[in-house]
Design goal:
Number of helices: 6
Number of domains: 1
Low-confidence stretches: none
Strand content: under 5%
Distance between the termini: 58 Å
Radius of gyration: 15 Å
Structural class: mainly alpha
């Protein structure tokens, strides 16, 4: 008789982050859209991509998505969720 198997859900966020790291997504955005803001455009757009993978939140609730303690692991730098307000992200998207 086979031993019981353990299964755990595979969430897409670490996979999306690993793919972005391997492809140089954040660095490419930093070169294309230079800014002097507290948060580079790369982590902002990466956060939007990861949010889309997790089920997609409205932009006004997007900062709440980033209140998870693993924010620094997911977007590549430690930031306060207030830095990802909808108007800040909107300005990044306008620059793209």
């Amino acid at each position: 008789m086979l031993p019981p198997r353990e299964a755990s859900p595979v969430h897409p966020l670490p996979l999306g982050k690993a793919y972005a790291d391997k492809s140089g997504f954040v660095a490419a955005l930093k070169e294309v859209v230079p800014t002097a803001r507290a948060v580079d455009p790369g982590p902002s757009v990466l956060g939007l991509r990861l949010d889309t993978l997790s089920g997609r939140s409205p932009l006004e609730r997007w900062a709440a998505f980033l209140t998870h303690p693993a924010t620094a692991l997911l977007v590549g730098q430690a930031v306060v969720p207030e830095a990802f307000q909808d108007d800040t992200v909107g300005r990044v998207l306008d620059r793209l």
